[in-house]
Design goal:
β15 and β16 form a beta hairpin. The strands form four sheets. This protein has a six-stranded antiparallel β-barrel. By secondary structure, it is mostly beta strands.
Length: 272
Amino acid sequence: MTASLSATSTARRHWETAAGSRGSQFASAGRTDDSIISRDVTGSFPAVDLAVVHITDATPPPAGFADSSQLRLGQVVLALGSPLGLRGSVTQGIVSALNRTEQESSSVMLGGLIQTSAPIFPGNSGGALVDLRGAVIGLPTLGADDTGIGFAIPSNTVVAIGRQLAADGRVTHSGLAWIGMLAAPVRGGGLRVLKVIAGSPAAKAGITAHSKLLAIDGRRVATASGVKRLLLSRHPGDTLTLTIQPSGGAKRDVPIMLGELAVHDQRVERTQ
């Protein structure tokens, strides 16, 4: 497994990508033999593809985390994992880019990613991207087939989210910007606001259902994923200007201060 929150002799809490966390018990991910380790999910946060599992009687020593904000382009990194079922594999590459935003699935878009040339294949997810000192700088989460491009969740994100999941199994401070409305594309461009969450930044700004979202900071919007991509580049507390056209009314610019996505609230999981 990748890294540990606590290093007692009997129990450790480890982070891995949420895609590899289905179920409540898992085979060993950190041993080269065929032994089985009992692992239970403490909590997961699909919005950033992370989960925390509790391991009992784990013998491998935990790896430490590096500060991913100190990464440099061209820095040599190693990807550890079990690509294509080949356990204990190591591949080498460099940090190719930082703060990438990529669509991982139809429902999950990830921001702030580390792009690396270290080959990442199915089975690397939940492994580790490490520097030459062996410190974890990220968790591999997404590969780009045969292009030689891979992506990893930065260690600072893993630690911030992982500590909350380890503490009480949920995330209350995600660090993700949130508007608080559900919208869908309409003919002619823009997005129709289907629902506004009570108490959300959108509600506080006076935006109502059936309004049309035309632009954000002067940039026209056409898809919900485009809005989400923009939000992933912003932070809670930032201010945006939304161009809104109320149903039957004239378009107007509405300033809005972004809130913070709180995923323990099930109503919020399905909104932007």
